Amino acid sequence: MKFETLSLLSLALGLSLSSCRHEQNGIRYLNGPEDLHGQVLCAQVGSVSDLYFTEAYKDSEIKYVDYATDIPLMVMSGKADAGATSSLVWMTQQNSYPELSHFSIESTRTDVGFALDKRNAELAAQINDFFDRFLDTEEFNEMMDGWCQDPDRHPMPQPDPEDCYAGVITVAVSPDQPPHDMIRNGDIVGIEPELMVRFAMEKHMRVEFMALSFPGIIPALVSGKADVGCSLFSITEERKKTVMFTNPWTQETIDIMVRRERMSHDDDSAAELNAGEDGTLSGLLERVSVSFKRNVLEEKRYEMLLKGTLSTIIISLLSAFLGTLLGVLLSCGSMSGHKPLARISGLYISFMRCMPQVVLLMVMFYVVFGKTDMNAISVSVVSFSLCFGAYVSVIFTSTLKSIDKGQSEAALSMGFTPMKTFFQFVLPQFMPRALPVYRNEFISLVKATSIVGYIGTFDLTRAGDVIRSRTFEAFFPLILVTAVYFLIIWLLTLLLSYAELKSQPVVHKFSNRKRHHD
Amino acid sequence: MIRIEHLQKTYEGNDLKVLTDVNVEIQDGEIVSVIGPSGTGKSTLLRCINMLEKPSAGKIWIDGADVTDPRTDISKVRRTVGMVFQSFNLFEHLSVLDNVMVGPVKLLGMTPEAAENQARELLGQVGMLSKADAFPNQLSGGQKQRVAIARCLSMNPKVILFDEPTSALDPTMVSEVLRVIRDVASRGITMIIVTHEMQFARNVSTRVLYLDQGVVYEDGTPEQIFDNPVRERTQIFIKRVRTVSRHFDSEGADIYSLLGEIRNFSFQYGLDAALTNRIENAVTVLLETCLNSLDDARKAKLHACSGMDLDIGFSEKSGHVRMRLSIPVELERIFDSDTVEGQARLAELNSTFMSVSQEVSEGRMIVSLGLNCR
After folding, report:
1. B348 vs B330, B342, B372, CA distance in Å?
2. Model-level pTM greater than 0.95?
3. Which of A293, A399, A467, B53 is deepest in the core (most CB within 10 A)?
4. pLDDT for A6-33, tens place per residue?
5. Does B163 touch chain A (CB under 8 A)?
6. Strand, helix or coil at B242?
7. ipTM for the predicted complex
């Protein structure tokens, strides 16, 4: 009986495994666009390739990723058979992925330009004017060559601060598409940023860059947080309904990347590649140290990590502090005899508990504080305080209710004032009961802050993403970031654990005499 | 001196007037027991005196200070008025010693050394010194209450309010707490004790207040109240037939839960084991003959006619146990002597009880059954 179950199980397992690897025995080659039907395809959310796949390959399963850099990883790991990316991006990436091969789909050739809100037609016209004069020059070609050949060192033009008297242009960039948009030494650089800086220098203006994730750029334009968005935007009719575009400064096609062994003429080189792997421990250590150098030491990327870590800590601590205050107010509200107040607190708490934090964050940034100058860190702190307050107020209320009223009455009847009663008798019993649950909630908060990248806050997770987008390494930055999170949470909760320890009852609280207690 | 004038307490929401008009004056050194039926506001009266409950109307003076006046520093007055609670209310996060030290150190400005010496002395007096380092959750109910009394004494109060200090205790622990209260009574501290322990109230107090219908219904020395109560409700209460009541419906009787209740009842009023057994036996017979033997038609009828009520009463004065069974007249034929069945039932009852009588009033037939026990 047992044996039969086992064999059934292994059969099911085998089936599911083999269905993951499409036609393992007779490899189905992917040599051109027509071979992609029925395959698992991967594209960046909202990108042109997303639109193209959805349109042309209705019979295929499409997997979406947030960052363009994740696409090669999906293909390499076999989670997707083919991935699509902009030819401009792939141009620089392909050297990092010797395992992957590609072909272009010429029919997808589209124009690429900068996006602006429709109210900014005048600025768009000025940029177009600049393009007309600049794009055909030798200088432009030199700039392009420079960035493509040596994205790690090609210099950005440095405007003279004295010359920037005419104002500021805010440019939203998704800096994960080198060499067009990237972060180098903590600054946003690349072909598109340089175009904007050159334009601004002509107008005696200063450019302020804002690093957002790709899906965040259009909302930033519409809400007026940014004037110009550049992230290799393909100019499509659909997008023109929401925003307006400058004239194109270049064109791109969609490049399809597939694993080398899936291309019929690349079989041999795939075999060569596999020969080079070193499976020993020293080989592993060596790879780790190489990764460490690339991801942490080069270009002083540790500064980026430190900056991200700092933001994560600041956002977590400030949100925890403000949220705790809010939580205290809310539980006072819900425990007060005042009925409308209790009702409002209750409504607020259930509303906040049901709202996904990402949605709250986006609404706060683009809608509530959309028209203000409030920076992303402050908005993050406000949003997280709002949720954290709701969460912890429930902890506070239930803990307070669990401390029996009789002790307060006893204290009052002895002549303690209500205030002293609270601090002397209620609070000391409240702390050891509430702290363990509170600590858990706090840990959740620290981890939840990893979504602030959505509104362009440069936190630890975002730092990891940016490093990934530069080094094209999948796992090392992720593991690194995880380790740092672990460290942060460990250190911060150590503090809370200390407070917990201090709040435990002691035998001789009032007596000065030292004595042994068994 | 405590003076209470026209004290009224109504609970918001349910319109329940607990105290309607309480007027009383208590002199220094008096030991006053407050007795009365449940729900007459004895505890409420006590809690109004130290303002744990806010009176709806009326005035209370403690040593000339009007505690109902918002301008009075109530915390200061409370330092001289201790309270011992039914549920002990020890500070759970403090050790026994600290429970008895916290008041003097934090409120009276006593040095920790002096407070500790005093605390140890008080704990010694209530027999709890060996548990000085224990936490409240390690103590039994009686031990907790003795610590609570020591804590109360640590503030050196002029008045102590005891709010049913033994009601939450296992019967075996009542006496240890009562002995401690007796000791305290000999110190000249004014005491107001709400209690159900009649014997204790009689022995320890110098004055007894009988509270009923929201007022001080009768006020006098223990001898007056317990031996020669003047007013009617006091008489009923003092000579009271203490009762256990049950309502039965068609579903049959839950004999075991009723027997458990009878056992508690016997324990509470000190009925001896032999008597308890007889009562239990009698009740079992009664229920078997009158309820569980009914056929389905009669059960349906019983259900339709608002069921059957059983009151078991014990008179402390005479030592008699009386049972009173009230059944709908529609069912009176279960005792009909014309039928074989009815005769059997009556015979059964007559052999168990000393006296059996029947009367019909207001659509119910009342069967009174007497059980002589002394």
Report:
1. 21, 10, 17
2. no
3. A467
4. 554 454 444 444 444 444 445 677 877 7
5. no
6. strand
7. 0.71
